[in-house]
Amino acid sequence: MSFAFICRLLAGTALTLATLVASAHSYKLGSIDIGHPNARPTVAGQTMGGGFMTLVNAGAADRLLSATTAVAASVQIHSMTMDGNVMKMRQLDALELPAGQTVELKPGALHLMLVGLKAPLKAGDTFPMTLKFEKAGEVVVTVNIEQPEAAKAEPDHDHMHMH
């Protein structure tokens, strides 16, 4: 291996690690760990968006009572389920965080609905959001706006045929 190759490899590894560290941010409030608050970008005219994160409760049962942010008129806690081919979404009064459990807020499941967006959410931007828990209290987290992982590309099916 050449010295230049090793330097490029190390630089690429450092860049990858820096990207992971920047995107994998977390917060702690009492016994609750809040992992990687994020939202997807939206387009002009889109008035709603979704907020996602992982909540790990290492202590006694608690509940997420509410969330607020200046980028939206309101934030609602939602559950989403599929009933056959019908998506059912409903607003929850609070999100239960059982003792010793992990609750994941993700697309197509439990999530925070950002209602009345004041401007489009742009990939690479961030915004603050305040989370209010029944027992743990309040914490301000930074929400990263991130593109969803791209679908894996289909393999190239170009073939050279010999006749």
How would you portray this structure in words?
With 163 residues, this protein is mainly beta. The chain contains one helix and eleven strands. Strands 1, 2, 3, 4, 5, 6, 7, 8, 9, 10 and 11 form an eleven-stranded mixed beta sheet that branches. Strand 10 (126-133) and strand 11 (137-145) form a beta hairpin.
Short structural description:
The protein is mainly β and 163 residues long.
Number of helices: 1
- DSSP strand content: over 45%
Rg, please? 20 Å
Q: How would you describe the shape?
A: globular
Low-confidence segments: 12-23, 151-163
What gap, in angstroms, lies between the N and C termini? 41 Å
Structural class by sheet pairing and helices: mainly beta
- SSE succession: HEEEEEEEEEEE
Overall pLDDT confidence: 85
For the biggest sheet, the summary is: 11 strands, mixed
Give helix % range: 10-25%
- Number of extended strands: 11
Task: Please render the helix and strand layout as text.
Layout: H1 3-23, E1 26-29, E2 32-39, E3 48-57, E4 62-68, E5 72-83, E6 86-92, E7 95-97, E8 102-105, E9 111-117, E10 126-133, E11 137-145
Parallel strand pairs: 2-11
Antiparallel strand pairs: 1-2, 2-3, 3-8, 3-9, 4-7, 4-10, 5-6, 5-9, 10-11
